[in-house]
């Protein structure tokens, strides 16, 4: 059998049709467009649509088939980084919207953009929606993965075999929910950021948020914007440290609760109406056995992944998007292109020992990072490394790194206005347009309002 025939007989399973899983499909489609043969691809997605996190669900807890809800996004969620930092280099914002838009679009607009690229091909055919991957095993003799699947719509369990498995199931879905003494005596709402669906319900309420990262920062300013009486952010390691407007403050970590009163490490205490745990997420793969499961916290270089994607003990098992993320869509693309070339047998990996040395070098670099700027440079360098092996259309990473640093400064200058800033695309050179309304005054996050504005309703296509 020649190599081409051999490839045609291979089967690739992808778990998840979020931005990472879709990037994997897109990487193969790019070859197909050039007239090349590709292996059989099947992507399993437990939701009824693609987009992963960007596929908003009003539900919390479980979905219509009793599966845990994946989405952690909420109404009024706007991009928290400039869109120019995540732009696909093979499908620009100009390609999609055919006009300049602002640098910080709301969720429905980014969902539309993600969908735009993948809709250009027949990618939907590869995806089995409403299908949960229940269990995976690997047979050393046949060198195949067996995947046990639940077709949720017809309540049927079945299994299939694959030569490669791409895990693109995300890692911002299973809440990390710490316990604080006495919290069971709190009479108000206690929730995790995963279940937060919009700030409206907290109007005129005194809210306590625990955590000091992106969720705490953004849910804090959302609640402020939508009329919360007060917002307190309680940090464990370091405060976020912005110059907060009156009505938002940071305090050290909660020590305990007594009824509706929270007590803090600095000896102060205060009464609250609701507590939101912005305490991050767990990397959780309930469908993977011990020996195949990535075990990591949220960091920039998870251990045991060669080039950040190949499971070192078994590189046919590929994880996408498992890093903490400054870069998102374009990083997933570079990972997916590299993974594709390995699965297409165009890229040979070094020995397990050599891969281990490479991983250790990255871990060592990671352990020396001291500031957010260092983090940005690290992830930039990581993507440059991946790009050097693939034909993903190159883009100016140094310029993106500079944009990330400017973004960090913009937030420090004014957390309420940073989303009004504009940046220049490295893909097309287009300068973003300022949004028609300042972010603080914009209460409508719909695509129509965003693209056409309030006064121009007649421009909205039917
Ligand atoms: P996900 O988007 O999480 O997709 C994973 C997919 O796998 C889901 O569709 C899920 O249903 C499916 N899946 C999981 N388990 C199974 C299973 N067992 N069987 C079948 N299917 C399964 N990034 C930005 O760039 N800008 C932002 O502004 C931004 N905001 C964010 C806000 C929040 C609240 C969160 C949590 C994340 C945000 N992110 C943002 C990061 C976001 O995670 C990435 O943009 C992106 O969605 C990651 O893509 P992914 O495909 O790796 O994972
Ligand atoms: P995260 O970045 O992993 O941060 C977790 C936070 O929880 C850290 O501050 C951590 O504190 C704290 N924490 C963990 N355990 C704790 C404990 N036991 N007690 C007190 N604090 C604890 O998670 P995240 O903030 O949820 O962000 C996840 C992703 O969502 C990011 O990619 C982010 O960009 C995205 N996001 C985007 C938006 C948007 O506006 N578009 C909004 C929200 C989230 P330590 O520092 O002490 O570890």
UniProtKB/TrEMBL annotation:
One of its GO terms (molecular function) is trimethylamine monooxygenase activity. Transmembrane segments: none annotated. Its cofactor is FAD. Coiled coil: none annotated. Its EC number is 1.14.13.148. This is Trimethylamine monooxygenase. InterPro entries: FAD/NAD-bd_sf (IPR036188), Flavin_mOase (IPR000960), Flavin_mOase-like (IPR020946), FMO-like (IPR050346). Belongs to the FMO family. It comes from the Bacteria. Keywords: FAD, Flavoprotein, Monooxygenase, NADP, Oxidoreductase.
């Amino acid at each position: 059998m020649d190599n081409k025939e051999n490839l045609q007989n291979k089967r690739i399973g992808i778990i998840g049709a979020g931005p990472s899983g879709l990037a994997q499909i897109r990487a193969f489609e790019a070859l197909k467009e050039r007239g090349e043969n590709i292996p059989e691809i099947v992507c399993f997605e437990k939701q009824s649509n693609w987009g992963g996190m960007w596929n908003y669900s009003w539900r919390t807890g479980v979905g219509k088939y009793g599966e845990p809800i994946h989405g952690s996004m909420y109404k009024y969620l706007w991009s928290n980084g400039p869109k120019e930092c995540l732009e696909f280099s093979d499908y620009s914002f100009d390609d999609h919207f055919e006009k300049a838009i602002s640098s910080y679009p709301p969720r429905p607009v980014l969902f539309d953009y993600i969908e735009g690229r993948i809709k250009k091909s027949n990618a939907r055919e590869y995806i089995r929606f409403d299908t949960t991957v229940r269990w995976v095993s690997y047979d050393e003799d046949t060198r195949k993965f067996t995947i046990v699947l639940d077709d949720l719509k017809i309540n049927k369990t079945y299994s299939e075999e694959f030569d490669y498995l791409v895990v693109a199931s995300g890692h911002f879905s299973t809440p990390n929910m710490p316990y604080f003494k006495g919290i069971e005596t709190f009479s108000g709402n206690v929730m995790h950021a995963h279940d937060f669906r919009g700030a409206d319900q907290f109007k005129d309420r005194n809210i306590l948020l625990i955590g000091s990262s992106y969720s705490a920062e953004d849910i804090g300013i959302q609640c402020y914007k939508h009329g919360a009486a007060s917002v307190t952010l309680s940090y464990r390691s370091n405060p976020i440290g912005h110059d907060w407007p009156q009505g938002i403050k940071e305090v050290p970590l909660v020590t305990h609760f007594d009824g509706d009163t929270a007590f803090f490490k600095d000896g102060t205490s205060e009464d609250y109406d609701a507590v939101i745990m912005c305490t991050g997420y767990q990397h959780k793969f309930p469908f993977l056995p011990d020996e195949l499961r990535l075990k990591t916290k949220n960091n920039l270089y998870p251990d045991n992944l060669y080039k950040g994607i190949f499971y070192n003990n078994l590189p046919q098992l590929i994880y996408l998007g498992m890093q903490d993320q400054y870069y998102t869509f374009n990083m997933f693309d570079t990972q997916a292109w590299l993974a594709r070339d390995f699965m297409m047998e165009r890229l040979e990996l070094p020995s397990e020992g050599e891969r281990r040395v490479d991983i250790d070098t990255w871990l060592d670099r990671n352990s020396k990072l001291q500031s957010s700027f260092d983090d940005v440079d690290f992830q930039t360098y990581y993507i440059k490394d991946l790009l050097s092996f693939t034909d993903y259309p190159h883009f100016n990473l140094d310029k993106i790194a500079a944009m990330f640093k400017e973004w960090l400064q913009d937030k420090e200058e004014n957390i309420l206005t940073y989303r009004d800033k504009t940046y220049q695309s490295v893909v097309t050179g287009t300068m973003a347009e300022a949004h028609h309304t300042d972010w603080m005054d914009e209460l409508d996050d719909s695509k129509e309002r965003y693209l056409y504005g309030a006064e121009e309703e007649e421009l909205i296509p039917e």
